Amino acid sequence: MRYNGTQVNLMKYLSTRNQSLSMNSQDALNQGLASDGGLFVPASIPCLELKTTLNKSFSELSFMILSLFLDDFPQTQLKACIDQAYTHSFDSPDITPVIKAGQTFILELFHGPTAAFKDVALQLLPRLLVTLKQLNHDDTVTSVLTATSGDTGSAALAGFKDVLGFTMTVFYPEIGISTIQRKQMTTQSASNLHVYGIHGNFDDAQRGVKSIFTQASHFDFPLSSANSINIGRFLPQITYYFKAYADLVQQKVLCLGDEVVFSVPTGNFGNILAAYIAKQMGLPIQHLLCASNENDVLTQFIQTGTYTRNRPFHVTSSPSMDILVSSNLERLLYWLTDRDSTQISTWMQDLDTTGSYTLDALTLSKLQALFIPYRLEEKDVEKTIHDTYQTSHYVCDPHTAIGVGAAHLYLKSHPEAIVIVAATASPYKFPKTVLKALHLETSPDDFENIDRLYEATHFPCPAFLKELKEKTEVHTQILHPSEMAQTIQANAHHD
């Protein structure tokens, strides 16, 4: 391709399981999952000069970063997509502000239209996909699929609502998600949106979606994904790690070049993967704290090198982290093995057939040099919510509390560190849990709990969450995972 008469080598995207499977960013965005079941990864990770990231708005910084990865997008259209995504949809002008709370800094990622961190990417992804259709004069209707453990679904539905050329189907586990999370999905009523409960847990839903993609050639309509298996999900998340660092430099908390630590509540590994990529691009990150709940498959993996899903599944107060198969880990292992797609294929096949795999010693040492794992039990989560409010009047949701708890454990042995916690959701999405942690009276009605939490703390509450109470749930069907593919097929022919 030529820009201003100069030949440019565009970024290629490769499958983690087969490096010969290569395509540009437009095709990788559209396809979602590679045809061999692997995940697309950029063939190289570009570097950023740190000082160039300072004193920029979120949109400006996003454009700077994404133009490196989505370099086959016309820059005018890419900039327009970014501006549209972040101009009116967030209730903070900073999009992802950083707040001091006691010993830690809180990177608030919940100021979007569904009050969860997934909004940062899912306000942008639909606009990118619509732009691709326009550029390619594509008049087909693409079926976008996602499995959700709680927050991805509502963010995806909000992003794709009434978007021409796309249907959006969300599958959520019947048991485990909060009432607020469920109603955010089941009350969406646009004609191009479909929402289904699944008998089983998030891993069952995610496995079903991946299976549909491996059968893509059997469908007579295009498929794409809004899960973090799609590069359009995790790439936009890189921005807020650079933005948080730049904000702390501007606030004179940091000097340019100082190292920081990010503590990330981790389930499907996409959010912390974005932080890893930011580090590879030049962000001075000393450690990444991988914070897990009682479903501590990642904690055990980082400690031992053995990944196993053959373990009990716990329903916890942090449902978006109730995951036993972390999809994005595959991308990290691809890079840690120096792009050994044959090894990745072997490990993923072992995971599918036996439920586990074990790293070699070199890869494990690389993993442990980058990530420090922590596990918080339910009692620890409640105590962290309570203690954080008592000491700093900051209200954490249970997922964020896991990140805060991990940060405090780290600070015991690294008291001089600057630790930034990724706050992944508003506490008002889990009001009963938060009220209980604060030793306040709860109600069986979660919407009454929202009112009680606000009255007790006056922590800012997203207005749309209160409005959910009066909305009718229009999507009530519960499926067996074996019914997912035929449901997608039936919807495509009736939309």
Fold and architecture overview:
The two termini are 38 Å apart. The chain has 495 residues and is an alpha/beta fold. Helix content is 42%, strand content 16%. The protein has a six-stranded mixed sheet, sandwiched between helices. A five-stranded parallel sheet has the order 11-8-9-10-18, sandwiched between helices. A three-stranded antiparallel sheet has the order 4-3-5. The chain has 21 helices and 18 strands. Helix 2 crosses helix 10, helix 16 crosses helix 17 and helix 18 packs across helix 19. It is globular. The protein has a domain of 251 residues: Rossmann fold.
CATH class annotation of the domain at 98-115 and 234-466: Alpha Beta
Low-confidence runs of at least 5 consecutive residues = 1-8
Structural category: alpha/beta
> Which sheet architecture does the biggest sheet show?
6 strands, mixed
Overall outline: globular
- Total helices: the number is 21
Q: Mind telling me which CATH architecture of the domain at 98-115 and 234-466 this is?
A: 3-Layer(aba) Sandwich
Distance between the termini: 38 Å
The strands making up the biggest β-sheet line up spatially as: 6-7-17-12-13-16
The percent range for strand residues is: 15-25%
Radius of gyration based on Cα positions: 21 Å
In the CATH scheme, what's the topology name of the domain at 98-115 and 234-466?
Answer: Rossmann fold
Indicate the mean pLDDT: 94
Number of strands: 18
Helix content: 40-55%
Summarize the structure.
The chain has 495 residues and is of the alpha/beta class. 42% of the residues lie in helices and 16% in strands. The chain has helices spanning 25-31, 58-69, 75-87, 119-122, 125-135, 152-160, 179-186, 202-214, 231-234, 238-250, 270-281, 297-304, 329-336, 341-354, 361-370, 378-392, 398-413, 431-437, 446-457, 463-467, 484-492, and strands at residues 2-3, 6-7, 13-15, 18-23, 40-42, 98-101, 104-108, 142-147, 166-173, 193-198, 223-225, 260-265, 285-292, 306-308, 356-358, 371-375, 419-423, 478-479.
